[in-house]
TrEMBL record:
Record's keyword terms, sorted: Endoplasmic reticulum, ER-Golgi transport, Golgi apparatus, Transport
Gene Ontology BP, a term: endoplasmic reticulum to Golgi vesicle-mediated transport
Protein name: Endoplasmic reticulum-Golgi intermediate compartment protein
UniProt similarity note: Belongs to the ERGIC family.
Membrane-topology descriptor: Multi-pass membrane protein
Superkingdom assignment: Eukaryota
Source organism of this protein record: Scophthalmus maximus
Cellular component GO terms held in the UniProt record: COPII-coated ER to Golgi transport vesicle; endoplasmic reticulum membrane; endoplasmic reticulum-Golgi intermediate compartment membrane; Golgi membrane
Acetylation among keywords: no
Length: 293
């Protein structure tokens, strides 16, 4: 939808409407140029790889990625009849559950609640097909890619409600390169068509209902000192020598047992030695006394 027909703001659990002065509305075309489509496909490919790895330190906080860069700007020779609106910026919200929504009409202050003025917009033009380039909470960290980055929802029909139920998890990152407090989040998506005649009531738009988790994730990078590595290395080498000596002693004991049982390796004198001595005594040379006789 065009920028003059929609409004975006935040309403938290305390019924406090957060000022949306930090958001900017830029008229664009929903169809992407070849350069923008290439950037979007690259972002989707990185998102797919991150879901496969499931690693906080080695994947989600890679310094080489340096975060998802913004989409390439539109060319100057594009058509002036823009059909969509690009909303970008930042908001300061309270640390309570809230609802960030983009719906038909500009928000107006109301003493009894929250309202959007949409009387001059035709219901047939309620098409909230959207594309999320980047959505994050807290301080921006180089290298982190969030779950909704690269999400694209296209609705061929009008009067659709897109809902994102977000659970924000505070995360403290402490590495040798980065030390910061950021926030991750998990998302549950839901979409449905608005048809009051069929009993499907509601308001067309994009609704992101977020809540802060009571848990906190701490990511810490630690390295082993050199002296500890040397001590462990000496222990491993000593264990190898001790085990080798035990194996050598055991093998020697088994060899001794087998050789003693089967009398293997015992020296036996030759049996022909007495016969040879007897033959030598019988053929002895006669002495001089016997010859004189």
């Amino acid at each position: 939808m065009r920028c003059q027909y929609i409004g975006a703001d935040v309403l938290d659990l305390a019924e406090t409407m957060v000022a949306s002065d930090g958001l900017k509305y830029e008229p664009v075309n929903f169809e992407l140029s070849p350069e923008q489509r290439l950037w979007h496909m690259t972002l989707l490919h990185i998102q797919e790889r991150l879901r496969v790895e499931h690693s906080l330190q080695d994947v989600l906080f890679k310094a080489a990625i340096k975060g998802a860069r913004p989409a390439p700007p539109h060319s100057e020779d594009s058509s002036t009849s823009y059909t969509a609106c690009r909303i970008h910026g930042h908001l300061y919200v309270n640390k309570v559950a809230g609802n960030f929504h983009i719906t038909v009409g500009k928000s107006i202050p109301h003493p009894r609640g929250h309202a959007h003025l949409a009387a001059l917009v035709s219901h047939d033009s309620y098409n909230f097909s959207h594309r999320i380039d980047h959505l994050s909470f807290g301080e921006g960290i180089p290298g982190i890619i969030n779950l909704l980055d690269g999400t694209e929802k296209v609705s061929p029909d009008s009067n659709h409600m897109f809902q994102y139920f977000i659970t924000i998890v505070p995360t403290k990152l402490n590495t040798y390169k980065v030390s910061a407090d950021t926030h991750q989040y998990s998302v549950t998506e839901r979409e449905r068509a608005i048809n009051h005649a069929a009993g499907s009531h509601g308001v067309s738009g994009i609704f992101m209902k977020y809540d802060i988790s009571s848990l906190m994730v701490r990511v810490t990078e630690q390295h082993m000192p050199l002296w500890q590595f040397l001590v462990r290395l000496c222990g491993i080498i000593g264990g190898i020598f001790s085990t080798t000596g035990m194996v050598h002693s055991m093998v020697g004991f088994l060899v001794d047992v087998v050789c003693c049982r089967f009398k293997m390796g015992i020296y036996k004198p030759p049996k022909e030695a007495p016969l040879i001595e007897q033959e030598n005594s019988e053929t002895s040379v006669p002495t001089e006394s016997s010859l004189q006789q």
